[in-house]
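User: Can you predict the 3D structure for this chain?
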Amino acid sequence: MRAKTFVIPMVFVAAAGLTAAAGSVAVGRVAPAPTTVTIKAEGTDLSGTVSSPKPVRCADGRTVLLIKQIGTRGGGDDIRFGMDTAGLQGDVYTWSTGTTGTAGRFYARVKPIEGCKGDTSPTVRAQR
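Assistant: Here is the predicted structure, written as structure tokens:
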């Protein structure tokens, strides 16, 4: 009588080990929180808000970049025009560049940071 080998159980054990290892990586990783940045123009005064389900981590003190759109949005010729830091005003995290004195099309951007996604606002038109 021939001795039986345990090839199938060894493959099963190896596959189970890979599954357990992959599962532990997925459990340890937390998805970044969504973040939303808005912009509005009142004349050439540009301002907006930053919001997130995790506001203390993702909105408070968040750097907001003001981008002047030149030509087609995202065409590589847009200009970083200014920046501000979002701060709590009432129960909303706001940012403002004040009166820029410059007319044109602008949008705001927050870059991703650890634990928080980035976002880009729609384009608005500032007019004198």
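DSSP finds two helices and ten strands in the chain. The longest helix spans residues 7-28.
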